[in-house]
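Ligand-bound model needed. glyoxylic acid.
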Amino acid sequence: MKVVITRKLPGDAEQMIRNASHDVWIHEDDCVIPRDLLLSKVQDADALITLLTDKVDTDLLKNAPNLKIVANYAVGFDNIDVKACCEHDVICTNTPDVLTEATADLTWALMMSCARRIVEGHKMTEKGQYKGWSPSLLIGQDLWEATLGIFGAGRIGRAVAKRAKGFNMKILYTDAFPWEEGENELNARRVDFDDLLAESDFLSLHAPLLESTKKIMNYAAFKKMKKNSILINAARGGLVDEADLYRALVEGEILGAGLDVYDPEPPEKNNPLLSMDQVVLAPHTGSASVNSRNGMAHLAAQNVINVLQGIDPLTPIKV
Ligand code: GLV
Ligand code: GLV
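Prediction:
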């Protein structure tokens, strides 16, 4: 059978699929596959491995009569119209678990960089502007015993919260469901969204992008936050209204932000958030560790192999 992979992946994914006697076509250029090329390549594809930058919609599905599986190389799947896939009898899978710890690490890297102004300090030192120790140089925020708010206590949100134990942080979370282990072992407390906003020193977003979470961080939300609080977003750019975030930072409604994701992505050059000292930027590298990316590739490939063999995939997306 024919498997289309929209971009070169790390690890052994391609070999695994070839070893299972399938034909593989890979988009070899290291850029997002042009839409026209994708649409032409799926015409006789039985399986498709997509990235979060590839849109899977009714148009694509109509063009792909043999398609049995879309295996997303990501845990988030807002790039896929899962309902339309279901209607076309196409199974969808994602890559949970294998990237949880790496993404939690990156979340912490942003949190610590913002709190202790690491990027500002780096730039200053690099430019030779560090002229000697000063009592007032780059004073930041404490992580120790601060309050960490987790918006979305899924796998990644929980992994972020677990790391907070070493910093003696108070953990608050907002989720549709209680997190018993967190409540028992970390004293995490489930609160409503307004209390999460009002009480968090660090607010970290870990919810999927849905109609109900779109731009949940808007000006009204920022107004409810502490003036010295820091927003971290390593989930999806669409959760944050970027114009409102900029306004909230300029007006001093919050102190800083650490962003791994943007809307649109990449951010436009003239996005004013890009040139603010109190904003730390990462280029959507949450899952970018060797183990995590290899694990994602392996899992996506195994999902494809399973479905083409007529057995259940390991990590189906349920509608
Ligand atoms: C990355 O953003 C992912 O969803 O895996
Ligand atoms: C989301 O699916 C997560 O892993 O937190």
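The chain has a mean pLDDT of 98.
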